[in-house]
Design the sequence.
């Protein structure tokens, strides 16, 4: 959606590097514990891509710095008759190791900015809307009824059951009745606090059908650990059927 | 001003040391005694905080498995030894609160700050000795209140050390004691900050310009400024929360709250996010309050045991100032997923990325200090090197959460818990250990055992990484922080073996700390006598006796050079050059 065109050559080159199929290979070279779990959201690969990019950059710096540290500790260990090199530093080095990290960090910030705007700032058009209301310790999920609008008397409400069709974006409007909760779908790379007195919005789109769990990620009291919900992504036909069943149950 | 007297003659204007037990050891005005009082206070609270962590980790390794003796010790929180979720919430809340406010801050600022700053600047005491005594004796009731809160109905506070409203507004009354304890402690810290700032500005020895100050003093001075400006914001927010809890105000309570099925009738008009903004406006500078002194201590120790000047002294001082300045505009990075406007998230991401730079500068300068040195692997040095190597991990892992999209996934997971422990244990605590081994001879006149110090370091360093590095993996698998039983979730079930490995490592880590405690106490009597300057160090605290006399220096020293002039070519075989040694010959004094 409406992402703003990258400005500046550095940024274009860097996003090219990031985009050019480098990401899957960055990840596949990693052992199990350094890999993120399966991603089933359309924008998830962008988050994962940034994660692996940062992992490779910080990992390389880490190895370099620790190797240098160990080398210095060995090479310059005290031995009789050797005298330390008397120096107060080097302005040239100071400039280099100020500018290089600054450039890396700013590039990372600019790359992140694009994905952030896409994921959290701009809501997609043509999406299905649901309302999720957190309360100690469950998720109330409200679907628009036959009129397709939220906040009308024909709305459907389920407890802890989020169903939505594959291939169509879903916008979730988050509220809370009591304290702050956080709506966390790990496999969808979605996390957003539900704050009392406020509406927060996120969107997501599934890449495949399946069953997953909703977790609460913000401490909300003694039952925080069991504030769990379930996500079911279905084909549009299955979803319509499920919704009709819910409507029937609600009516009876 | 003759020096023929038989008894030790006091310099003019100096009061004699009090002789009564109460005035000498309990209500002392002497910064050295107060520093030691803070040291004992902090070490005691460190043990308590550590024990709480052990219980947290027990639950994570073996969810629901009872601990028989805890059933007797805490019958309400752990009936028959089986932990209740609300007790678990209290445990991690109190672990963090105690470690941050009652252990790390008192040991770095209260203990080392008080003991070292006046000595390093060549002063007889802090600027306001009575205020200093008052600070310590205000910190004590703070600790009493926080420990007492375990025994009130409903148990101790259980809404996390961040105490997000509205949860913290509707918790049992342990939360009120939590607020009172931190408010009282806040007064103590505020007065300490005023005292440090005044002392460093006014009581520096002749010749001791700002750019001749040891970096420990730089760090503690800037820390005091941060404390002075950040703490009132926290105190204000805590008073508001206290009012919400006991007086029926609604600063943080929006309209229409329904708590456990009951509408909260007085709620309305408040803002839940306001607490987070106020808390983190304090909270982020607070992170630097806890790490800057440890950075200062490391910058002090690396040159001494590399026998080499610090690399880039001015860059080190400026990066402290840079961190202190930027630290005020990054608080929003704790709130990327909070419902704060995402555009603000971008702003805070950029400032957060930029604040990584001064930390990077410091790491590179520490490496530069080691380069070309002659490195002596003493226990202070080992811990300082431990600091550098672990702080690198804590610093780099911060880049992940600075990136707003990546933070969506790792926010509020164990990845964050891993990050903060690499900064606060790998950083602040290794810094504190380094400072303890380094200044112990000056404090008590004897050295701690080097051999046992090395054993302690080896055990701590290895097990620390075994406990905390896997936290990054847990976070990457999506395990939330502050969660009583992760086995509820299908995708987290498989993490139990990893959690057990971490907990067993923590037990070894804990046992390793017994070595430190024994070494600390036994060395007071049995340690090798230290002499005035056992590390052949340049700074002023080593140019007086160990322990220093009541008035610190018989004559106030005059400073002729920077603090890290090691292995200067003009000194020939002598690789140290005390700050107060005149350019040629013997030290002269200000009024000698």
Sequence:
């Amino acid at each position: 959606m409406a992402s703003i065109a990258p400005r500046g050559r550095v940024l274009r080159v860097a996003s090219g590097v990031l985009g050019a199929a480098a990401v899957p290979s960055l990840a596949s070279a990693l052992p199990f514990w350094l890999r993120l779990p399966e991603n089933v959201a359309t924008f998830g690969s962008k988050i994962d891509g940034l994660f692996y990019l940062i992992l490779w950059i910080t990992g390389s710096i880490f190895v370099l710095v620790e190797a240098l540290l160990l080398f210095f500790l060995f090479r310059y260990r005290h031995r009789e008759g050797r005298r330390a090199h008397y120096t107060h530093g080097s302005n040239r080095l100071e400039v280099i190791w100020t500018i290089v990290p600054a450039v890396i960090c700013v590039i990372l910030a600019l790359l992140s900015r694009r994905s952030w705007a896409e994921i959290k700032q701009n809501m997609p058009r043509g999406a299905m809307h649901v309302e999720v209301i957190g309360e100690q310790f469950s998720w109330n999920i409200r679907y628009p009824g036959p009129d397709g609008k939220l906040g009308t008397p024909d709305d459907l409400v389920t407890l802890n059951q989020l169903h939505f069709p594959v291939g169509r974006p879903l916008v979730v409007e988050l509220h809370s009745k009591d304290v702050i909760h956080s709506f966390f779908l790990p496999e969808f790379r979605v996390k957003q606090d539900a704050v009392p007195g406020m509406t927060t919005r996120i969107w997501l789109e599934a890449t495949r059908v399946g069953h997953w769990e909703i977790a609460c990620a913000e401490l909300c009291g003694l039952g925080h650990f069991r504030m769990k919900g379930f996500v079911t992504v279905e084909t549009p036909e299955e979803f319509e059927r499920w919704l009709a069943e819910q409507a029937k149950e609600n009516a009876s | 001003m003759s020096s023929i007297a038989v008894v030790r003659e006091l310099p003019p204007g100096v009061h004699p040391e009090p002789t009564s037990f109460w005035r000498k050891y309990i209500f002392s005005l002497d910064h050295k005694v107060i520093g030691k009082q803070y040291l004992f206070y902090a070490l005691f609270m460190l043990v308590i905080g550590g024990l709480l962590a052990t219980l947290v980790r027990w639950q994570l390794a073996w969810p629901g498995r009872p601990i028989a003796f805890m059933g007797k010790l805490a019958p309400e929180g752990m009936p028959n030894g089986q932990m209740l979720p609300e007790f678990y919430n209290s445990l991690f809340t109190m672990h963090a609160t105690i470690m941050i406010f009652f252990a790390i801050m008192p040991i770095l600022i209260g203990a080392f700050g008080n003991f070292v700053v006046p000595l390093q600047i060549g002063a007889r005491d802090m600027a306001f000795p009575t205020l200093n005594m008052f600070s310590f004796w205000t910190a004590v009731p703070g600790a009493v209140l926080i420990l007492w809160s375990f025994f009130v109905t409903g148990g101790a506070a259980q809404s996390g050390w961040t105490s997000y409203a509205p949860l913290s507004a509707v918790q049992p009354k342990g939360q009120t004691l939590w607020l009172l304890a931190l408010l009282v402690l806040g007064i103590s810290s505020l007065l300490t900050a005023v005292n440090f700032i005044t002392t460093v500005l006014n009581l520096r020895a002749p010749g001791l310009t700002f750019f001749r100050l040891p970096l420990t003093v730089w760090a503690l001075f800037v820390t005091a400024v941060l404390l002075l400006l950040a703490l009132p914001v926290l105190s204000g927010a805590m008073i508001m929360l206290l009012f919400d809890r006991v007086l029926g105000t609604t600063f943080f309570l929006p309209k229409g709250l329904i708590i456990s099925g009951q509408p909260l009738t007085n709620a309305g008009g408040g803002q839940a996010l306001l607490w987070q903004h106020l808390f983190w406006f304090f909270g982020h500078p607070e992170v630097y309050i806890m790490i800057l002194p440890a950075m200062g201590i490391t910058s002090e120790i690396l040159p001494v045991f590399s026998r080499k000047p610090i690399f880039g002294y001015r860059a080190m001082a400026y990066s402290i100032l840079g961190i202190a300045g930027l630290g005020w505009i990054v608080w929003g990075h704790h709130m990327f997923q909070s419902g704060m406007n995402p555009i603000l998230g971008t702003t805070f991401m950029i400032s957060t990325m930029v604040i990584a730079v001064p930390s990077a500068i410091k790491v590179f300068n520490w490496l530069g200090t080691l380069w070309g040195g002659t490195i002596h692997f003493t226990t202070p040095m080992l811990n300082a090197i431990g600091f550098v190597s672990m702080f690198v991990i804590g610093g780099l892992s911060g880049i992940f959460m600075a990136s707003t999209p990546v933070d969506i996934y790792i926010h509020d997971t164990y990845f964050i818990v891993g990050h903060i422990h690499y900064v606060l244990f790998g950083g602040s605590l290794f810094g504190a250990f380094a400072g303890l081994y380094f200044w112990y001879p000056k404090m008590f006149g004897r050295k701690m055992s080097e051999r046992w110090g090395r054993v302690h370091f080896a055990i701590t360093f290895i097990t620390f990484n075994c406990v905390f590095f896997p936290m990054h993996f847990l976070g990457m698998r999506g395990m939330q922080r502050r969660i009583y039983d992760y086995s509820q979730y299908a995708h987290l079930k498989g993490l139990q073996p990893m959690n057990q490995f971490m907990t067993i490592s923590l037990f070894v880590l804990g046992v390793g700390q017994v070595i430190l405690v024994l070494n600390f106490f036994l060395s007071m009597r049995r340690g090798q006598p230290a002499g005035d300057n056992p590390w052949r160090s340049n700074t002023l605290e080593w140019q007086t006796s160990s322990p220093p006399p009541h008035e610190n220096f018989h004559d106030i020293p005059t400073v002729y050079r920077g603090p890290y002039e090691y292995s200067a070519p003009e000194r020939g075989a002598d690789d140290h050059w005390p700050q107060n040694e005149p350019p040629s010959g013997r030290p002269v004094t200000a009024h000698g």
